[in-house]
Amino acid sequence: MAEQTLNVPQLVVFIVLAFLGVRWYLRKPAAGSTRPTGQSHGVRIDPAQIDQVAQMFPQLDRRQIAWDLQRNGGNVSATTERVLTGRRLDTPPPSFNPPAPRAASTAQSATPAAKPTKPDLITRYNLASRVGVASEAAASDSASKPKAWSADRNERQANMQRKREEMILAARRKMEAQEKGKAKASGTSAS
Amino acid sequence: MTSSASKRLFKEYRGLSSDPPEGIMAGPVSEDDMFLWEAFIQGPEGTPFEGGVFPAELKFPKDYPLAPPTMRFLVDVWHPNVYANGNVCISILHPPGDDPHQYEQASERWSPIQSVEKILISVMSMLAEPNDESPANVDAARMWREKRADYEKIVKENVRKSLGL
């Protein structure tokens, strides 16, 4: 009887210890691997994640949030849980630079201010090597006119690609010729 | 396994490949996914877009052709009806129920009797004739209305850049 009543608190203590042990074990690798590297090649924290936590807990310092996210590998729910369970976030070392907050996050839905410029078509479709070769395309034009529709799937794909490349290269040649003509005209008129 | 949507898309792909409209080319990026296409539109002659080739991405919904695809240009297009991120805003891409402004005719909007070919032809003529009633790019729309020369200069510059010049 006495044995049995003793067992319940023991069991509770065991479960609590096991839970803490597992948590400690799971947290450790993430923290351990990122701590020494700091900002330079640690996990890249998404400013959006910092915003997410900061919106839930406006009283927290963004730097501390960033530091905690940095150490747990960008796990928002882990940081949230940490705050909710009443543990304070650690103060980051002075060398830690959190990523800058996203600029103009309020005007997100409006025009994106600094959009990255899109790559040109020559780069996009890997045509740099074929830009200078004018005769090749002209020759292939007449020699092997691709059939409009092929029964073979791979051939269709290849035809598509060839037509695409020809379209771009033809436009490029035309534009180039046009510019050359213009430059020549302006050159002769100037001299 | 192939859904009616991908069957229909395949049929349209076949039609567009066998008999493409002038200056237009389109097809799936890979036949593994019939719901993602790439289209190429040549700039219409007699417009500042002339000489350019404008690639765009078409994303089809799983219930195509009940719902329209979305279309996004993959190069910079300075145009009143093209958002800064390249998304095209044109009535044929809008389902009939989805018109808060009520300025578009139901017949101009998306319905299953429209097609990829009709979308691309509409977009081509949109390049030539912007619709500034409901601009997607307000700055471009204003410039098109008030400073046409500046507008054409930007368009031409974008065309040159997109050809790697």
How many beta-strand elements of chain B? 4
The CATH level-2 architecture of chain B is identified as Roll
Classification by helices and strands of chain B: alpha+beta
- Averaged pLDDT of chain B: 90
Q: Helix fraction of chain A? A: 55-70%
| Biggest protein-protein contact in the assembly | A-B, 30 and 29 residues
Question: Unreliable runs of chain B, pLDDT <50, ≥5 residues?
Answer: none
What is the beta-strand fraction of chain A?
under 5%
| Topology order of chain A in helix (H) and strand (E) letters | HHHHHHH
How confident is the prediction overall: mean pLDDT of chain A? 74
Structural class assignment of chain A: mainly alpha
Amount of beta strand of chain B? 15-25%
Question: Quick one: biggest sheet of chain A?
Answer: none
| Major β-sheet strand ordering of chain B | 1-2-3-4
What is the count of DSSP helices of chain A, taking H or I runs of 4+ residues?
7
CATH class of chain B: Alpha Beta
What are the secondary-structure elements of chain B, in order, as H or E?
A: HEEEEHHH
Count of distinct strands of chain A: 0
